[in-house]
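To fix ideas, we now present one chain and its tokenised fold:
***
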Amino acid sequence: MADRGCPLEAVPLPTEVRESLAELELELSEGDITQKGYEKKRAKLLARYIPLIQGVDLSLQADSRTTGPSQTAAATPKQPKSRPTNSRDERFCSDVHTEAVQAALAKYKERKVPMPSKRRSALVHSSVDTYTPPDLHPAPPDVTTGLGLGEHLHCERPQVASVRGVPRGCSGSILETADGVPVSSRVSSKIQQLLNTLKRPKRPPLKEFFVDDFEELLEVQQPDPNQPKPEGSQMVMLKGEPLAVGTPWPPSLLAALQQWGTTQPKAPCLTALDTTGKAIYTLTYGKLWSRSLKLAYTLLNKLTSKNEPLLKPGDRVALVFPNSDPVMFMVAFYGCLLAELIPVPIEVPLTRKDAGSQQVGFLLGSCGVVLALTTDACQKGLPKAQTGEVVTFKGWPPLTWLVVDGKHLAKPPKDWHPQAQDAGDGTAYIEYKTSKEGSTVGITVSHASLLAHCRALTQACGYSEAETLTNVLDFKRDAGLWHGVLTSVMNRMHVISVPYALMKVNPLSWIQKVCTYKARAALVKSRDMHWSLLAQRGQRDISLSSLRMLIVADGANPWSISSCDAFLNVFQSRGLRPEVICPCASSSEALTVAVRRPPDLGGPPPRKAILSMSGLSYGVIRVDTEEKLAVLTVQDVGQVMPGANVCVVKVEGTPYLCKTDEVGEICVSSSATGTAYYGLLGITKSVFETVPLTAGGSPVSDRPFTRTGLLGFIGPDNLVFIVGKLDGLMAVGVRRHSADDVVATALAVEPMKFVYRGRIAVFSVTVLHDDRIVLVAEQRPDASEEDSFQWMSRVLQAIDSIHQVGVYCLALVPANTLPKAPLGGIHISETKQRFLEGTLHPCNVLMCPHTCVTNLPKPRQKQPEVGPASMIVGNLVAGKRLAQASGRELTHLEDSDQARKFLFLADVLQWRAHTTPDHPLFLLLNAKGTVTSTATCVQLHKKAERVAAALMERGRLSIGDHVALVYPPGVDLIATFYGCLYCGCVPVTVRPPHPQNLATTLPTVKMIVEVSKSVCVLTTQAIMRLLKSKEAAATVDVRTWPTILDTDDIPKKKVASIFRPPSPDVLAYLDFSVSTTGILAGVKMSHAATSALCRSIKLQCELYPSRQIAICLDPYCGLGFALWCLCSVYSGHQSVLVPPLELESNVSLWLSAVSQYKARVTFCSYSVMEMCTKGLGTQTGALRMRGVNLSCVRTCMVVAEERPRITLTQSFSKLFKDLGLSARAVSTTFGCRVNVAICLQGTAGPDPTTVYVDMRALRHDRVRLVERGSPHSLPLMESGKILPGVKVIIAHTETKGPLGDSHLGEIWVSSPHNATGYYTVYGEEALHADHFSARLSFGDTQTIWARTGYLGFLRRTELTDASGERHDALYVVGSLDETLELRGMRYHPIDIETSVIRAHRSIAECAVFTWTNLLVVVVELEGLEQDALDLVALVTNVVLEEHYLVVGVVVIVDPGVIPINSRGEKQRMHLRDGFLADQLDPIYVAYNM
């Protein structure tokens, strides 16, 4: 390793200054002082010496100091100050590594990465720069909204027929993008940065793909032909030295205890220390023996349950002892052995929700534990239930707690002796282990193994009688238990147990104890050596000369080498001999695997290997010479244990022996290993009974081997080298990376400046069939947004450079929030669990799916299209009919005489007023359910006449003028509509502006009035005042309104004559609506089309004057307008009108009305259905009590212009089934701009059918029917029956040729009630002429069709319709304008949104759109702002998994931000414009790399 002192070494600083600096650094690393305070104090200390160090930048010096060895300075007191890189188990920077990382970072130019933006309130403390500036641009006008009151202030921008207008008043600084959308430079510059970043070539070039037309096969990572391959010969099994024969071993551990307890009762066995380092108690061998006997007697004779003894020999008993009480633990452990009970030591559970505590409970349950032993103090500290008993922890079995302090135990009679059989294969104890996935397993150790292990350790470590051992490790498991509780008793040793709490307060305590007690051996972890380095300054009188062996229990960790080197450097001058440091390797399954022996015990000299990181990732050992950056330096962990055989086998598949230069899993065959995973036979066989094979397939030995979970190789002198653990292995593509190595690289970036106490967790998650690396770090409380973002980008570069692997997600969490393992480390599996569940609550996230995910399917290449003629021939050959269908023929259905008489609606109303004057047509309900106004035939006729007279006289209008009707939903709207028809004017219905939200709703009203060329506005007095008010003037130019007339009190006058149109093709009314893509389009409806529409609906729904229907829809456009204003007059039925706005104050209004008026037919919108489902979910019982009964409903139709929302309709049906609603009743309608009613279920005919299609095929514009529940299946419900007189065909979107049955194409419609064309101010009809007058390019080229702009397919079903024909079902897939073209495939936003909403319970709503080929996902967060960042990774994962798409930007916003129109459809284009103009005030915006 490179020898470098710290840069300050150049100037001889006085010792006291050095010590003060060291203290400062310790304070900084512990988080006791802020970075700023640290720098200030440091500058002050160094002020006098600054001129001497002029050439060096101090901040860099602070960072580049490392824990590296510096033999040159070894003998002098001027030691290099090692930085406290962390206070955490097992992870330390080696200085080669730090150098490598700094060099790697220097190679990269600072590349600009877009920084996420975060809302002020979402930051605990943030820098001002990332703050989203307030809006300078006016919000775009709103064209909506039925649910717009207050909380849903939706932002809708009207635009005229596909012309996207820029809102007025926008400053010129806004960028114009290609399609004319204003963009604030802030968002777009970030997106530009992101695009620049993504243009960089990805590391693995895309390989050849398997392309099948249908299946999107994920790319298989091909092995790199140049990758290193092992070239050595096959290894041979390595034999350890034999166990010494002739040594007088005690026959068993309990025999040894009895011998020492009776012959040497005063000999000290264990000394316990308190947190000040004082010895509080020394347990002698006599006391240990007598107390263990007492406990054994109590356990066997004094505990009963239902008069039976509670325990019998062989039962398992939990040992719950704190790390500060080794004495009681030892008594409990030996007491159990004496009573032939099996101790299961576990951690003390502190709260009901401890990390991993549930899995420990599972272990206890599976072991059948009923009794837990603990100390008095510990029992008092456990959480209690109301009864005073200890609570049952989550997942734990019910336990009896027994306190083992003296007064609770019974003294055994003189003649009582335990019958303990402690030899042979019986289980002696069970040690717990937590696996990579977080499950806890129990490893059983038999009496024979226990004894053999103690003997092997005694021989390997050269323990002798009455030696003193200082133990810093956890005495409940692993090396702490093996050396400090078991082997020590066998050799009558004296153990000084140093608790973790004392180490935290005084990291030097263990060294002081070695010195005080002249200990010959010490048992530590790298962490303890590292901590003591930081604290040794100023300690003059400590000496380590008594040590003959310093056992480093985690010596197998690749990063322990730097701690060992640095420790030796500093303490060699205090009597520490280099050969004393003995790293060892152990595993829970195989116990101790190898340990380095000092030369006097026959050990060879220690060795180091500098290995190529790239070679290791392929599992090959290459000693690195030239490439100094990506290397791993490891030390040997000594020789194999006495009496053991060791070999190295392949990590995956059959356990063949590895070659000598290959990394594999170390396997041990010995009498001193664990025997099984308790109760788990399957995995026991694969781990504890492995049979390694030679290349020829013959077993290496007749004895089975135990897999250790350690990865390594056998080096020169038969020394064992470990390079990682199986648990920390992450297989990315064809390479494997060790989590510990990645942590070390991240720590080397700038450990102390940023990461809190060096706490970093690295693990992998499977996304899209490959492991992806996730790195989670705790950031220091004083870190700024800029710091954290810069650190994240540098870590990505360092890992990329050193490991050649991309990090999928980098998350930062606030200090002290990661789940902790019992002794202070990070609980990795729990962290991973939280990440996947979305409960990690990071404060910063950087996702890099673009760089990591290289196995996406190949983008689809558009094949040259098959011509329309070949398509037809192909269908004929395949025996498929052409996809066309039609409703019933109109001619057979009624006499043409009546149809002629009903050609003009104005005539119909006059005829009804004459023949049935008092027949009620309309009832309007308010929120309380009371009727606020009604209209009979004659009342409506008279009101219409008054309106017509007023228009002629006051408005001086001429025939054919356009009149805007701005009314709230009600009878006035209907009357003024007919008033316009009576005087020959063309009505345009407009939703009134919202008084609380004028700024967004008024511009839309103004725009429709202008675009429709209305010469007059009819409205109420209240709205008239609003249109002319001061508030209105702030939003629009109120001087340019046309004449505004209010109709509140017009005089009773008749018109001289009622206008009769010269021909049925004359324009009757204009229907304006905003499409979901934000385009405002008005269509022209002629008188002929209007009456044909009413006639079709009448026939389909069987409407007669005696019928009543309930309508809860907005009356301004489309089918809602027709049902509200036209149908009742045409068919004579009575309509109960329920304005959807009233549901906001009374959700049950609509259903109560349906029940009260016994409506057979009712119509609603999706927004209404959603309000009822969400708002009445818990109230069905109360509604039933109030007598609400929905059994009268034959059909309840949702008026929609989209794919049926099957989950919503199903949950609505299920919810209100209790109120008598038949499951068959709920269906949907389908209409669009060119024809407002194409499908409508009606009262007769077969029920709507549902099919399941393959979502992947849909992306390729194909329909492939699959079974329900098959992967990637998508349910599609038929959109109701095709109306009488309507013909539908499916045409190819590009060739315009007809398609076959079950083929996806554009739905074309031909019908007498098609609209006659667009009405727009810019005269853009030419652009859209073919929307209304399209012809097929082949086949029937004569029929004129209207193009709906929707994708769908027809399918002939097995059902028969009323005429006895087989029924053709029409399935709508989605609007063509809305689809996203990504990677050559066509995606429907709703499918991606459905996946995203399922990703986390806090996602209330979601909308997606694309921007410069990036997929942008906007999610509404229903929850706390600090949970916002949990969603970023989950959203990215789910879209990758289910749609094979990489999300470019994730935007998290408040509920109600995604604009919804009155039909309940998302206005994605408005959302996009709002996002680009920076008007959403997002909580967080994450730009995925």
